[in-house]
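User: Hi! Is it possible to get a structure for several chains at once, not just one? Here's what I have:
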Amino acid sequence: MPTDSSLWLIVLACGAATFVWRALGVLVTRRIDASGAFFRWITCVSYAMVAGLIFRMLVMPESELANVSLPIRMTAVATAFAAYFLFSRRLVAGVLAGGVSLSALAAWLG
Amino acid sequence: MAQPPLDEVTALLAGDGAVTRKALLDALSLPAFILFFTMMGFGSLARGAGFDAEMAALASLLIWGLPGQLAMVELTRTGQGLIAIVFACSLANARFMPMVVSFIPTLARRQASLARMLLDAQLLSINSWAMCMREFPRVEAAYRHRYYVTFASSILSAAVAGTLLGYHSAVLLPPVMVLGLIFVSPLFFALVLSAVPGRAERISMLLGCATIPLAHLFWPAIDLLITGVIGGSLGFVLGKWWDAKNAD
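Assistant: Yes, the chains can be modeled jointly so their relative placement is included. Here is the combined structure:
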């Protein structure tokens, strides 16, 4: 087991290492034109990355969610979107419907 | 958080009180709770890896990006060296670079000092990024920063509180409920981003979903960066092409 001070060092160093990316982003943003092509491009890159991350979490999860079969997960996603649009785009409705249907299907079929 | 289509919006949201209220309501109606539960999971993992409660809370506050926090805890638990741990955490959170570049200009604060911009960047997480991209078209430019800071600091507080509670509580939820709670976090982002305007942005998101399976298979450590560059560049070009085609 690592010592206390080395664990503190790990936390602080990881915080600093993540901050480096944020600071780099700020330095870039101060040098670019927010209506220019580079900004448009990097916005698209961010959207693709975030969508990829969400897709990975829902379709190819490494968490305990991997124990729930893909059809169940996809049914729950579909239920969530149906509830979301049915209840005039309320996020709460979609999230509740999705979470409850996943839990129920996993308990029933799982 | 009912969502009238953009073309039905008549007046943009403005005013200190109204904007603060909306940001708090948007945070407390869902994302704060989702993060609270997610970070409870992180707190209990951090404890299992040998961290103190204060260390776990500081990790949520300073790193403020779950993939990096999980990498830190997992590699520490398995006894890796400091350099390997920091490198893995950093790589898992590299997405903050493009996210910050695409986000800071939308706050419409060109004249802000470097220190303030760095503080804004430190507060950013995928929750705030997605929520602001969705809500900013409805908020008067001068009030966007207020919306963002209120929303982001609310969910950050919930995250730190959740980390501490998860660390200290021995409460075990039923497994099926835990599954539902893990599932809800990506689901929330998916719903939030379904209302984001912009042709190129939407194409980029679809292409990101199409790229990630292969990228993850071949380069798991940098799958998101590859996905971003490929999906985003194609989305950017296709969006431009679409606009040009429909201009005449």
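Residues 36 and 105 of chain B are 29 Å apart (CA to CA). Chain B is about 75% helix and 0% strand.

User: Great, thank you!
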